[in-house]
Specification:
Helices cover 50% and strands 10% of the residues. By secondary structure, the protein is of the alpha+beta class. The longest helix is centred in the middle third of the chain and has 35 residues, at 146-180.
Length: 308
């Protein structure tokens, strides 16, 4: 029975969503991570478990592990039921059920992808397009019908209502804590609402994503080109940071570019700078193999012969 299940699994088509690449910068300077914890920038060779960099809902639903250059998502701790695979630019699965598709789109959204190419069976492409549209992502590779667009609008509205309910529940829980523990509540209120002079409030991930959208909408053409190039560089070179930290850095970069254009006018890139910003980034050359240590030859002990 297990052999038949494996055979059916192997014959299923692979359903994939791939990130549509943005413009890449090669000559632009690297961006320091403002606001990111110093330990994240100097992580060294210490690598945190894979599930710690996933959204909370994904980390609770799947057992996540890095294997052979890709991230794998299992439904059981024994790593027998593989649900999805993911690389830096794609997420794939043999399944086409709605729960798996939603998880794939949620991972893409958490990674900061804005546009995805959808490949696979007709049912997978339809559901993936609807879920991507409901979350504000551009889905390519599928032509939706009016009913598909209507379903995407309905799910988008349901998501908005669910977010409002969760926000209300959090506020109610906070008020209950305030009522039950006045001393603790006063301390929380003081820390939450009385920031130190000159210290900006800590942005949330929704604040960062909103700032990114506003920057893309307000920047000039060359400004958007530079911002897209820097965003791609952040994704590539800061892969040890989680999606929230990357979004915060991108929001900072976009806000600073908007401030610069407001003060100095639209960004104008030279032809060389535009070519550098649109050129694909070369992968770093692999390190040269270390020379093999020289083998030490031990001298042989002198042979003794018996005299006659």
């Amino acid at each position: 029975m297990a052999i038949m299940d494996q055979a059916r699994e192997a014959l299923r088509p692979t359903n994939t969503i791939e990130r549509v690449p943005e413009l890449v910068a090669t000559a632009l300077a690297s961006v320091p991570p403002p606001g990111a914890p110093p330990s994240a920038a100097r992580a060294g060779n210490d690598k945190a478990p894979a599930y710690l960099s996933e959204p909370e809902t994904i980390a609770k639903r799947y057992y996540v592990e890095d294997r052979r250059g890709e991230r794998q998502y299992f439904e059981d701790y024994q790593r027998r039921n593989l649900a999805m695979r993911a690389t830096d630019t794609s997420i794939s699965s043999k399944r086409e059920d709605l729960n798996t598709i939603r998880a794939m789109i949620e991972i893409a959204e958490a990674r900061g992808w804005h546009s995805v190419e959808i490949r696979g069976s007709a049912e997978f492409k339809r559901e993936a397009w609807i879920e991507a549209s409901a979350r504000g992502l551009e889905g390519r590779g599928f032509t939706p019908s009016d009913a598909d667009r209507q379903e995407a609008d309905r799910r988008r509205a349901e998501r908005g209502q669910a977010n409002e309910v969760r926000a209300g529940e959090r506020e109610q829980a906070r008020e209950e804590r305030v009522a039950g523990h006045p001393a603790t509540a006063a301390t929380h209120e003081r820390h939450a609402h009385e920031a130190q002079p000159g210290e900006p409030p800590t942005p949330t991930v929704n604040d960062s994503r909103r700032a990114i959208r506003e920057a893309r909408r307000e920047l000039s053409e060359d400004g958007r080109l530079m911002f897209s190039a820097l965003s791609e560089k952040i994704d590539r070179q800061m892969n040890k940071l989680n999606s929230e930290a990357k979004a915060e850095i991108k929001a900072f970069v976009g806000t600073e570019l908007v401030k610069k254009e407001r003060a100095e006018g639209p960004t104008v890139l030279s032809p060389q700078q535009r070519q550098a910003a649109t050129a694909p980034e070369r992968a770093p050359a692999p390190p040269a193999p270390a020379p093999a240590p020289a083998r030490r030859v031990e001298p042989e002990a002198p042979r003794r012969s018996l005299g006659r």
